[in-house]
Design a protein that fits this description.
Layout (H helix, E strand, L loop, with lengths): L5 E7 L3 E9 L2 H15 L4 E7 L4 H7 L5 E6 H11 L3 E6 L6 E4 L13 E5 L2 H13 L3 E3 L13 E4 L4 E5 L4 H7 L2 E4 L1 H6 L9 E2 L8 E6 L6 H10 L2 H10 L10
Keywords: Lipoprotein, Membrane, Palmitate, Signal
Protein name: Methionine ABC transporter ATPase
Membrane topology: Lipid-anchor
Length: 256
């Protein structure tokens, strides 16, 4: 998964409107600092940023009103969080997202992958599904047409062209598995945090809207000026230019 942005709006008599944006450490906090913050400042906002190191507190802070938006999660994660916690969070707009990649310290190409090789995948169902789809995009496996694309299981694989053996691990372990196992599917944020280059992947994920990160707000703010201005900031030329210059390899929504 990727990172968190949270936004809290306060009005002060002498300084105008303040947006406090919370982001988890890594490429998405960089995106807030470099791309989103300047675009909001151009609209007259004062922007404050708070970083988080987990995937729960930013949503709790958003729900409690300490923050007004976040950017670290995909829509599937958000919906599960709403269901499990009784919150009413809303995905506002997609942002470019670091794709999962198939990395190897052993093989220099997809064709060189040996029969029977082990490949590490994320342990959680959503991200393991992304991994299986990336393997299918690489031509290494085929998945049943009626499979649930958000919860793909080994039983859904109809063809395993190189008889790959799947090893499921916590996402934080996957960058190390590039060397330890030889083949590993690493979510983009973990790859970048580990100093890996997206361009080194044998295959990068072809994302769909279920897996791209979103700016998320409270549903009650859907029609607010803040929501409109966040959308304007993401659609601004500054935001797009910064993505092109500083976030190469990120998967972009169609509107980009």
């Amino acid at each position: 998964m990727a990172i968190i942005i949270v936004t809290s709006v306060l009005l002060y008599e002498d300084e105008g409107e303040v947006i406090t944006i919370g982001a988890s450490s890594g490429p998405y906090s960089d995106m807030v600092n470099l791309a989103l913050k300047p675009a909001l400042e151009e609209q007259g906002y004062t922007v404050e940023i708070v970083e988080y190191t987990d995937y729960i507190q930013p949503n709790n802070a958003l729900h409690n009103g300490d923050l007004d938006a976040n950017l670290y999660q995909n829509v599937s994660f958000m919906k599960d969080f709403n269901k499990e916690n009784g919150t009413d969070l809303l995905n506002l707009i997609q942002v470019p997202t670091a794709p999962m990649g198939l990395y190897s310290s052993q093989f220099e190409s997809l064709e060189a992958i040996e029969n029977g090789s082990e490949v590490a995948l994320p342990l959680d169902p959503v991200n393991s599904s992304r991994g299986f789809q990336t393997l299918e995009d690489a031509g290494l496996i085929e998945i049943a047409e009626d499979a649930n694309m958000l919860a793909i299981e080994e039983a859904d694989i109809t063809q395993n062209n190189k008889n790959l053996e799947f090893v499921f691990q916590d996402s934080g372990q996957l960058p190390r598995s590039v060397d330890q196992i030889g083949l590993s599917l690493v979510p983009g944020n973990y790859a970048l945090a580990s100093g890996m280059n997206l361009a080194d992947a044998l295959q990068l994920e072809v994302m769909n809207e279920n897996f791209r990160n979103q700016i998320v707000i409270n549903a009650e703010d859907e029609n607010s000026k803040m929501a409109d201005d966040l959308i304007k900031a993401v659609e601004s030329e500054h935001f797009k230019q910064t993505i092109d210059e500083e976030f190469q390899g990120f998967d972009k929504p169609e509107r980009f």
